Amino acid sequence: IVKLNVKKIMNLLEYIEKNNVSRSAFALECKMSVSMLSRILNGSRSPSRQLMFRILKATKGKVKIDVFNR
C-alpha cells in the first residue's frame, strides 16, 4: 500500500471543501464508495488508474492525475 503525502491529499480535499460538495455526492459521481474516498483522503489507499481519470473528470481538471503519482 502506498501512502500519499499530505500536500497531495489536500488537493482533492480542498476541491471537495471549496466546492461545497459532500463526500457522499463526490464519491457517487466518481463511482466509488464513501469509504474508498475516505481511504484516499487519509492516505491509506491510492486510486486506481480508472478512478484517477474519473476524479479528473469530476473535478473538471482541477485535481490533476499527477497528484496521485505512486
Provide a short characterization of the protein structure.
This protein has 4 helices and no strands. With 70 residues, it is mainly alpha-helical. The termini are close together.
What would your notes on this structure say?
With 70 residues, this protein is an all-alpha fold. Helices cover 56% and strands 0% of the residues. It is built from four helices and no strands. It has helices spanning 6-18, 23-29, 34-42, 49-58. Helix 2 (23-29) crosses helix 3. The radius of gyration is 11 Å and the shape is globular. The model has no long low-confidence stretch (mean pLDDT 84).
Structural class of the helix and strand makeup?
mainly alpha
**Total number of β-strand segments?**
0
Q: Given the C-alpha coordinates, what overall shape results?
A: globular
Low-confidence stretches: none
What is the terminal separation in angstroms? Answer: 10 Å
Strand content: under 5%
- Spell the H/E element sequence: HHHH
Count, helices: 4
Roughly what is the average pLDDT, rounded to an integer?
84
For the largest beta-sheet, the strand count, sense and barrel status come to: none
- The share of residues in helices is 55-70%
Properties at a glance:
mainly alpha; 70 residues; globular
